[in-house]
Amino acid sequence: MNYKESLSYLESLNVFGSKLGLSRIERLVELLGHPETRYGTVHVTGTNGKGSVSAMTAAILSRSGLRTGLYTSPHLTSYTERFVIDGEQASEEDFAAAVSAARRAADTMLAEGEEQPTEFEVLTAAAFWHFAEKQVNYAVIEVGLGGLLDSTNVITPEVAVITNVALEHADRCGGTLEGVASHKAGIIKKDMPVVTAAEGMALDILRRKAEEEGADLFVLGEDFTVRAAEREAGLSAMDFCSELLGIRAVRCALSLDGAYQRQNAALAFMAAKLLVKANPSITEETITAALRSVTWPGRFERFALEGTAVIVDGAHNPAGAAALRESLDAAFPDEARVLLLGILADKDYTAMLDTLVRPGDRVVVTAPESSRAGDPEDLARVAREITAEVETVRGVQEALSRALVWADEGRILCAAGSLYLIGGLRRLLLERGASHDA
């Protein structure tokens, strides 16, 4: 298959939906010769921040001279974003080759009378195969949903990271916060170190699982801490501290903005330190250099367009909305705001709007480019209980134009709600001549 044909094949698999369970992916990787065993792995899950932590961890390993793959989802504009090696997306040819290999294995399964793998299972197997073909030393693997029954959970990583645990995808993970935490704890393997920022009852569940597996658990706020520091050369900064590791304070400037990125960076820092014994090329110098230069689009990403400050953030659930609000209040405490929002129907959009929208804000609501998009009129009704100036605009391009008109009156513009919205908006902003603003 060529690239276009590979995309058509993946699209054809959408009819099978999303199915939790490992039997299909286990057979896929078996037929592919278990490519996931040919390199070291880092496994990352959590409700928020797992993409940023994955990107930071991969950047640290690459900066330390280790050829490193990065598998994430969803993509913003192109499927090739999901397969990255040392910061470079897979070529369309390499992506197609990987999907072709996974398809051959899937076709064999069908011939054997087994169930058709889902799109995500085929993509995950293709990513494992691609990284093996390209002879990476490590691959950082982001969980798609939950952890326990996620397709990525066929790997045996050298370290796992569980960012935080909040009530999301509860319908697929037991219906309660306890169920969600149990699913995320499912990536904990025997004798494997785990790094987490989880708190409360969720942390208790992770502790129990780690004890059952004989896995060392390293907790943010207990075994390592992070302190905000003054900005350096336009970048936010933090001090990483760990009495356990004998580190009083390591100053890190962060290329990824937003207050929540300090916690994400601390998790990546700790995960990297746990790999130092096996990989002495990982040093505090390579860690800080990577954190200063890593890129991860759509996470408190700042643009300037014709004098308007634009923030693009993939906050897609209440916890993400709270983190975005904290960052907006810290970076723009006095500025009036325009919010451009598009949220999926299965999210708690009432809680998200209650967090993000202030009285006096102007709000433009549109639908993300997804079959799961929420009705803009439903969101608008909730927003109007908080602020008077709310409009619904059906098309994303038209919504951006309207938001920019409102922001032209000296307001900042913040676009958020779903990564399915953010990808198209970033493309439109760049096409209009927006530049990154430090």
Walk me through what this model shows:
The protein is α/β, with parallel strands linked by helices. It has 2 domains: 3-293, UDP-N-acetylmuramoyl-L-alanine:D-glutamate ligase (3-Layer(aba) Sandwich), CATH 3.40.1190.10; 301-436, Alpha-Beta Complex (Protein-Tyrosine Phosphatase, Chain A), CATH 3.90.190.20. It has 14 helices and 18 strands. The protein has helices spanning 3-12, 23-31, 50-63, 92-111, 119-133, 177-185, 200-213, 260-273, 284-293, 318-331, 349-356, 376-384, 396-407, 419-431; strands at 40-45, 68-71, 83-85, 88-89, 138-142, 159-162, 194-196, 217-219, 225-232, 235-242, 247-254, 301-305, 308-312, 337-341, 362-365, 390-392, 412-416, 435-436. The protein has an 8-stranded mixed beta sheet, sandwiched between helices. Strand 12 and strand 13 (308-312) form a beta hairpin. Helix 2 (23-31) packs across helix 4 and helix 6 (177-185) packs parallel to helix 7 (200-213). It is globular, with a radius of gyration of 21 Å. The two termini are 41 Å apart. The model has no long low-confidence stretch (mean pLDDT 93).
Short description:
This protein has 438 residues and is an alpha/beta fold. It is 39% helix and 19% strand. The protein folds into 2 domains: 3-293, Mur-like, catalytic domain (UDP-N-acetylmuramoyl-L-alanine:D-glutamate ligase), CATH 3.40.1190.10; 301-436, Protein-Tyrosine Phosphatase, Chain A (Alpha-Beta Complex).
